[in-house]
Amino acid sequence: MDVIKRVSQSGAYTIGVVETHTIGEPTRIVISGYPSLSGTLLEQRAQAKAQYDHIRRRLLLEPAGHADMYGAILRPVTELTTSGDAHIGVLFCHNEGYSTMCGHATIALGRFLIDTWDESVFPRRREIRVDEDKSAAEIRLHAPCGLVVITVPVVESGQSSDPTRPVSFVNLPAFATGRDVPVHIPQPARWPRLGGRETVTVDFCYGGAFTCLVSTEQLGFGKNGLKLPIDSQAMNAATKVLREVIQADESCQQYVTHPMHKELSSLYTLIVVDKDEGRPLEKSTGVETGLCYFAAQQIDRSPTGSAVTARVAHAYAIGRRHMGQPWTYHSLVSNSVGGQGGFVGTPVEEVSDLYDTKSMLGTPVRVKVEGYAYYVGSHTFVAEKEDPFVEGGFLFDALTYHGNDK
Ligand SMILES: O=C(O)[C@H]1NCC[C@@H]1O
Q: What is the enzyme's main class (predicted)?
C-alpha cells in the first residue's frame, strides 16, 4: 500500500472502488477520486462520456479490468437529490459506454449504501430510515432512467445490510413494445446458423432500458431451449449480427423508442430466451433461463435486472402473467456455476396514466426485482502518466474475435 501511496503522491490519478458481485456479475463501485460533474444526471452522464471516458476505460477494460467488467459511479448531487426525491444518484458504465439502468448494480448498491457511513461517499446516509416491521430500509436511487426504489434488509437496527435476505428494487414503469416482430436479415450468409432464412422473429420490451428477446430456435440453435454446452462463438456472432441489424433497421426503431425521453431510446440488451408462452397461466410461479448480450458483446453473468423488469412487463402485457405473480429468472452463466436463486421478478402495480401508451402492448407496470449481492473486496487504482494505457485500456476480445467477422 505504501508503494501505491507513493505513486499517487507523485502525480498518478487515484480512484478508490468497492467491488461486489450480484449472482456472479461484478460491480466496481467508484467511491473516491472521480472528478466532479455538474448539471442534471443526464448532463453529468454526457460530461462523463465527453471528458472522463478514459477513467471508465482505465477501470473497466484491460489491464485493470476485463471485457465483462461493470461499473457504478456514485453521484451525490443530482436534480432529484436536490429536490429530496432521491437520496443519491448513479451512473452505470460497461465495456462500451454508459447505460440508463442496471438491476444487478442496483442490488449491489442497495447493500453498499446501507453499509457505508462515510459522508463523503453518501452524504444523505443518516436520512435512511428503517422499517422495524420488515427490518428493512428504503433507498431512493436516481438512475439515468429515473427514480428506482431499493429495499434493503438490515440488521443491528439498520447499521448494516443483511446478506441472508434478498435486496429488492421497484423499477420505473416497464412496458412491452413488440411481440413476434419479424426482423429482416439483409445478409443471412453472415449468420450460418440461419440456414438461409432471411427473417428472425423477436419481442421488444422496456425496463429502464430497451431489450430484445429472441428464442434459441429463432437464432438457429434448435428447439431444445437454452442449455449448456452452447457453441459460444456461433452464438456471439449471431447475437452480434442481430443487434447490429436491429440498430440499423429504420422499421425496428419504433420498438426501441421511449414515449417521453429521447436519451432512453435505443436497444441495450439482447436476451436469448426459453419462451414461456406454452406454459399454463394459472401456475403460481415459474422459472426461465436467459443469456444476455449487451454493450460490446459483454455477457451478463446475472439474470439482468433491467431485462427481468422488461420481461415481466412483456409477459404481463401479453396475458402470460398475473399481477403479483412471482417468476424466477436465471442466467445461463450464473445458474451453471452455482449462482444463488436467480432474480425473482413480480408485477406489482399497473401504471396507466403516465405515458402515451400508443406504442405499447397492454398497460405499463411497475415490477419488483429481488436478488442477492456480495462484497468481493476493494481497490485503489492508480494511473501513471508514463503508462501507455493511462488514457484507458483495451478489449482483447475486440482485437481477436469481434474484429474478424466483419
Ligand atoms: O442487471 C442489469 O440490468 C444489467 N447487468 C449488466 C447489464 C445490465 O445493465
A: lyase
